[in-house]
Amino acid sequence: MKDLIRAYRLYHKLMRHPHLLDEVRQVFLDGLTERGILDEGALTRQILELVADSGDEPGPETIHEYRNAAIDILFAQHFNDSDIENHINLARKRDAFRNLQRVVNAEGVTSADIRRALKELTSIPQGSLHLPPEEVEGVRVALIDHFISSQLPFIGIAKQYITLRDVDEMLDNSHWTPRRSGKIGGKSAGLLMARCVVLPRLSDKDPDIQAGVTVPESHYFSSGILADFIDYNRFYSLHSQKYKTGQQIEDEYGKMAAKVEKAAFPPDIMEDFRSFLGEVGEHPLIVRSSSLLEDNIGYAFSGKYESVFVVNQGDLETRTQEFVRAYKRVFVSVFSPAAILYRRDHNLLDFDERMSVLVQKVVGRRFGDYFYPFAGGVAFSQNMHLWTPRIRREEGLVRIVLGLGTRAVDRVEPDYPRMIALSHPTLRPEVAVQQVVKYSQRMVDVLNLKTRRLETLPYHDLFQQAPHPEAHLALSVVEEDHLASLHFRGQAIPLENSCITFDGFFAQTPFVALMRRILKKLEGAYGRPVDVELAWDDDRLYILQCRSLAGHEDIGQVTLPRDVASDDVLFTNRRAVGNCMTRDIEYVVYVDPRVYQKLRSYEERLAAGRAVGRLNRLLKGRRYALFGPSRWGTNDVNVGVKVGYEDINHALILAEIAFEEGGVNPEVSYGTHFFNDLVEARITPVAIFPDEPETVFDEAFFRDSPNVLSSLTADWEPSAEAVKVIHVPSCRRGQFLHVYQDSRSQEGMGFFGPAHAGDSAF
């Protein structure tokens, strides 16, 4: 009787899906066969025996009826209720999958059709039984290509990790126009892939990562929205902007931005924006670029496009207008000089680049009028900054700051993030307490919810106005010749005698262990080094972005020549050294650090950066090196030369010279967008400390060599007096400059010698 009741219940479950009865029973039979209970042959024999014993006519209908009853009864006997549901759902998934497979491969199918078919499949409970991976792979590829990315290198990796349910979940958080589908773009694709690798649905899960790592709430606005915006405003001329000269692009960019700012989105898109903001509520947002090419494998586009914070406070109309302004700023950045020149340099100009947008809830909490996370930063799976042989390159590097991570990825002011080698998190490049304090973070980026702006505050002021409960993890107290970590929440902190070290954070949280494992997983998935933007708040690690890194070909250990005459040595360096053998440098562009420091006006210092950019264009195709004060690429002209990618992309060497009186360490930008530009453009960063013992620096060569600037151009800004151009062979009896560096020994030198007979650059 018990077996009959179980069979009766099973039959009622089957009748919920009458069109799938044969499909379900085949799944049941497969399950019975897998458990060794019976197979098709044994079942057929048993049915024939039962029919013969019953005296019924052994026709096809009778045999079919007996077969179904036998399968139902046997399955009810040997499988529990949960197993029954799983097997029924597997049959349902097979049916829905066949429909999805048909739809996704049909000619002229719409995105709405695909989404309906996908939702039909994913609305079925996932259960423990899955469709065969070899059958699903083709549909995964089609969905990734349609909604996420058409880049073949990305698809080849993503199809192994992004499941059908991941795509469906992404679509639930996506915004599209009914006129165009578009794709979610590169940054969104990289984030989605990182989540699927680190927090997988189907493969083995790491319990520590599952408990301590997450991705912030993210929403995807497809490239079709901005295509509609262009059509609605008849901005068709924007499509040809990329083919203009660099000067035209630069001259017209400001006017274009103003034109876009005044333009309107179609009414239905505006309603979608309002609906989105109504659902997300009054939580700060970051509107991030996610162009189709951005964060692609081999092309990161680091810092080329805009990301804009939106405080998102107040009435809906105010929030909508603020959101739209941010959206337009991100959109127009696809036409910026830096972005177009980057595409031109990488032979990507003819690609129909479209801008999608990734909108994320900002990680953090409110403290008074301020909103910020405990920490933000960027992590690298390969550590290129080996300041001691003890450090293991393959375990990675983290660049971390208190507050929003903007200060970790941009070069800002005379301020320093904490850099940690994940293989040895307690080791520092600095030794003495005075150096640790000098090269520490002082300013914090936060969102001011009252003024509705991104603001920068001294951490002393921030913690006095809005104390953070985890402040003890970030700060150490300076006590004469040592630093004392703080151990307890709420512990009194003498802010005037403190500095940001993160020593307590690394010792008392699982951050370092989590980062090691995450980076190893992501590098393994991509098959190449990666970087990850991150935030930490309320005991959780947030992944904000992930991309693969471009890299130089590994030229192995570099042997520095030992027979160079002392008169032929231009400089030596023993810190922040990466591998390099760059030969036959003909021109040196020199921004004299001493003269630059004497420039009094902001405009004079900006002129030096403009001069460098102009020379970069004039020297295109020539082998030249840039030497100047630290820091190149900073946003603060008081500590370095303000330049962007478009101003340095033709240089072979970018050297930062740090005289003691300058007071700024040439940190070489490890982990910043600027440093990624150097890597991708194959520019070698060089850090020179002339005042350190045993360092050679022939300042007289830079100071006394003739300035050939006037031979390159007759039209020059008088205010750019700090800049000169040296033609090396003319000053050195036909010799050229060669720069060798070896990362293993942390030794480097620049020296003069005859032209190299073979390949000049590695």
Features of the shown structure:
762 residues, alpha+beta, Dna Ligase, domain 1, 4 domains, six-stranded mixed sheet, five-stranded mixed sheet, 29 helices, 27 strands
Protein architecture, described:
By secondary structure, this protein is an alpha+beta fold. The chain has four domains: 2-79, no CATH class; 173-361, Dna Ligase, domain 1 (2-Layer Sandwich), CATH 3.30.1490; 365-519, no CATH class; 566-753. The protein is 40% helix and 18% strand. The strands form six sheets. The chain has a six-stranded mixed sheet with strand order 2-18-17-9-10-11. The protein has a five-stranded mixed sheet with strand order 1-3-6-4-5. A five-stranded mixed sheet has the order 24-23-22-21-25. The longest helix has 24 residues, at 81-104.
Q: Main sheet: which strands, in order across?
A: 2-18-17-9-10-11
Number of domains: 4
What is the approximate shape? elongated
| Multimeric state | single chain
| Individual helix count | 29
In what range is the share of β-strand residues?
A: 15-25%
Structural class by sheet pairing and helices: alpha+beta
Helix content: 40-55%
CATH fold type of the largest domain:
Dna Ligase, domain 1
Work out the number of β strands.
27
Name of the CATH class of the largest domain = Alpha Beta
Distance between the termini: 81 Å
Note the topology.
Elements lengths: L1 H13 L6 H14 L5 H15 L5 H19 L2 H24 L6 H12 L10 H16 L3 H7 L5 H9 L1 E2 L10 H13 L8 H6 E2 L3 E4 L1 H10 L13 H17 L4 H14 L4 E7 L15 E4 L5 H17 L4 H9 L9 E7 L3 E3 L2 E3 L2 E6 L16 E6 L3 H4 L8 E4 L11 H6 L4 E6 L4 E6 H7 L5 H4 E5 L2 E4 L12 E3 L2 H6 L2 H16 L3 E8 L2 E9 L20 E5 L6 E6 L1 E5 L1 H6 L3 H17 L5 E6 L15 H4 L4 E5 L15 H8 L3 E5 L10 H6 L4 H4 L10 E5 H4 L4 E7 L4 E7 L9
Parallel strand pairs: 1-3, 2-18, 21-22, 22-23, 23-24
Antiparallel strand pairs: 3-6, 4-5, 4-6, 7-8, 8-12, 9-10, 9-17, 10-11, 12-13, 14-15, 14-16, 17-18, 19-27, 20-26, 21-25, 26-27
